[in-house]
Amino acid sequence: MRHVFAFLLVAMLAGCAQTTDWDYDKTAQFALFKTYAFAPTAKLPDSSTAYQVNGLMDKRLRDAISIEMSKQGFSLTDPTSADVLVNYHVNVDKKVTQDTINTTYAAHWNYWGWGVQSQTTTHEYEVGTVVIDIVNNGTQQLVWRGVKEGRLKKKQTPEARTETVNQTVAEILANFPPKAKL
Length: 182
Description:
Number of strands: 6
Largest sheet: 6 strands, mixed
Shape: elongated
Number of helices: 3
């Protein structure tokens, strides 16, 4: 029973860790924004420590952002005339989890005794964070930010990586522009 509870707790925490978060400027007039461009600084640097962060991932992110912005009715234009600039960042961190299992035993056939055994295992994994910023090009002020964090999968095909990026960007930009509350 204890193992079932521990599994459910880990599953709940893992689900929470992969939720999307947004923040935005409540005074921004999002209805006026119709065009976008990528900020001049919007480029992923090649990383020597995180093999997933490279030029291929940069292209996947740009393509996914362009698809989602187009779905929202935005047109890609020149950075000097765009209403908003899109910038993005990716970070990869190593995380460690430890699982300890305690077992106890008591009576055995023709033998009475008591014992406790503990086994601890450690797992290292990588967590990726994608941040998408929307900046008002006229004021150069950040007006919207979306973030998603999740456990990275290794040994994915290029198609699987593209699908993962597309889904992640779609979830991040699902609340851009922010929906009016009724």
